Amino acid sequence: MVEKTFIMVKPDGLQRALVGDVITRFETKGLKLVALKLLLLDKPTAEHHYSVHAQKEFYKDLIEFITSGPVVAMVWEADNAVYIGRKLTGPTTPNEAPPGTIRGDYCLNTQFNVIHASDTVKNAQREIDIFFRPEEILHYDKSIRHWLGLDGLEPAR
């Protein structure tokens, strides 16, 4: 089933020049980029996005961090996009993230973990709605679908 997921490269990822690698990993896997923004989060938007963590002790530091510099917000589309996004990203705690995942390859601690990835389809839609208006999400055909085996046809031999 085709889904959309929300992915955000956090300020540390942007400062460390990892945006291109993050995009490459998602593109190489076969996901389709349908929306992208470079922005500075204001405090109300950050608080809304991370409202599920409002009662946790790290919340204040999280809001301070995520508003400390630019982020890159993206919407990616694919069959099982949320699951794939989480697998590419790796667990939130970098020590638990295996090599080959974004966090496994680039992160040393949980506070500076480079990337946010939606954890459920419901949360993906909520997060997409925070950062993007419907008209900002593009609809287009990606010619590589055939070569990924996603259009029901076998690739030519």
Description:
By secondary structure, the protein is an alpha+beta fold. It has one domain: Alpha-Beta Plaits (2-Layer Sandwich). The chain is 36% helix and 18% strand. It contains seven helices and four strands. It has helices at residues 11-15, 19-29, 43-49, 59-66, 81-89, 102-106, 121-131; strands spanning 2-9, 32-39, 71-79, 115-117. The protein has a four-stranded antiparallel β-sheet with strand order 2-3-1-4. The protein starts with a strand and ends in a 26-residue tail after the last helix. The model has no long low-confidence stretch (mean pLDDT 93).
Low-confidence stretches: none
> In which range does the helix fraction lie?
25-40%
Distance between the termini: 27 Å
Please report the total strand number as a whole number: 4
Give Rg in angstroms: 16 Å
Q: Strand order of the main beta sheet, please?
A: 2-3-1-4
Query: Which class of secondary structure composition applies to the elements?
Result: alpha+beta
The SSE order reads EHHEHHEHHEH
CATH homology superfamily: Nucleoside diphosphate kinase-like domain
Mean pLDDT, to the nearest integer, reads: 93
CATH topology (fold) name: Alpha-Beta Plaits
User: Which architecture name does CATH use?
Assistant: 2-Layer Sandwich
